[in-house]
UniProtKB/TrEMBL annotation:
Organism placement in taxonomy: Eukaryota, Fungi, Dikarya, Ascomycota, Pezizomycotina
Keywords noted in UniProt: Membrane, Transmembrane, Transmembrane helix
Domain of life: Eukaryota
Transmembrane segments: 36-58, 95-116, 229-252, 264-282
Name this protein carries in UniProt: TLC domain-domain-containing protein
Length: 345
């Protein structure tokens, strides 16, 4: 007879029940986040300055050196149409890739150890180090918020309303979460909010990085419609999968810690998260439109290639030795007929 526990669950079911019964957020202690909280404003300003310096040098010489043909094309488009939308978009995707790769590589360990591992925000990154996970994660939040603030100022005329809402929401909620951690005694859910911001930020990084790579290739390999179609189609599926996983994970975490949140955040958190999900799905819809466009261009290129093959086949066929011989013989026969019909003078 199979042993049962937890109200009739089997051993395997009991194991899963114990594994998912309580998450780490339900037992998260409301402690001090980081010793560099007082430097939050200088940090976010510093990152915005760094982004502007990087973009200035990229637009002056680096991107032109790496992509001479592509950058000349987007620059000429700006001169012709009077809008530098393509040039700014090309630069923006490069900076987005750089920032997100740096964030993933630098804070991946701290995020995993704090979110699902045995460490907390006050744990040293390495034994004997003064720097803690909280220091690294707070810096990453300011780095990410500074990036979105820079993007809003750099591409304000090109951003859609959904993107504006997404960026505004991320900046506001991230900075509020960091600011409330300065006084953990006054609020019982300060680290809960920061924990959720880390979860949402991690999903945001992972879901959007392939899209930025695809958009760069969309400009660099603009004639490779087949490759772009499959790449963009993958990105659409990837974004939808990440969004659905993020929704499920967020519902699970909020359900597991709902009684620890202050009443105001019972309304603010779902509203802000719903705006984020709407913005992500709307952006995915736009990406799907680009995907379909590349599919149409791919099929059109196939039709043009077939048509060119047919035309080249006709031309080569008309110049083949057999057809040339036949045409000569027919011309000779026609000449003979003419000679036999027409009178001799």
């Amino acid at each position: 007879m199979t042993a049962t526990t937890h109200g009739g669950l089997s051993n395997g079911g009991a194991l899963l029940h114990n594994l998912f019964q309580r998450s780490k957020i339900s037992d998260l202690e409301n402690t001090y986040l980081s010793q560099i909280l007082a430097w939050s404003s200088p940090l976010i300003c510093l990152f915005m300055i760094i982004y502007n310096v990087i973009v200035y040098n990229w637009e002056k010489w680096l991107l032109r050196l790496l992509y001479p043909i592509v950058y000349d094309h987007v620059s000429s488009f700006a001169k012709t149409t009077g809008t530098d939308r393509k040039r700014k978009s090309f630069t923006y995707h490069h900076l987005a890739c750089t920032v997100k790769v740096v964030l993933i590589c630098s804070v991946c360990y701290s995020v995993l150890m704090v979110l699902i591992g045995p460490h907390d925000f006050t744990t040293s990154i390495v034994s004997g180090s003064v720097a803690t996970h909280g220091d690294f994660l707070l810096t990453s939040v300011h780095m990410y918020c500074g990036y979105y603030a820079w993007e809003l100022s750099y591409r304000s005329s090109q951003a859609s309303p959904s993107n504006m809402l997404h960026h505004f929401g991320l900046i506001v909620i991230g900075q509020i979460a960091a600011a409330r951690c300065a006084n953990p005694e006054a609020h019982q859910d300060t680290l809960l909010e920061f924990y959720m911001c880390l979860v949402w930020g991690a999903f945001d990084l992972v879901s959007e990085l392939p899209v930025h790579v695809a958009m760069i290739l969309h400009r660099v390999k603009s004639d490779s419609h087949r490759m772009l179609y499959y790449l963009l189609f993958f990105c659409v599926g990837w974004c939808i999968s990440c969004t659905m996983t993020e929704i499920a994970f967020t519902i699970y975490l909020l359900y597991d810690s709902w009684d620890r949140w202050e009443s105001a955040w019972h309304y603010v958190t779902p509203i802000v998260f719903s705006i984020w999900c709407f913005a992500q799905l709307y952006s995915t819809k736009q990406l799907y439109g680009i995907t379909i466009s590349e599919k149409i261009k791919w099929h059109q290129s196939l039709e043009e290639a077939k048509k060119a093959d047919v035309e080249s086949g006709n031309e080569s066929g008309s110049n083949s030795p057999r057809l040339i011989l036949c045409s000569i013989e027919s011309e000779q026969g026609a000449s003979a007929d003419k000679l036999s019909i027409e009178p001799l003078y």
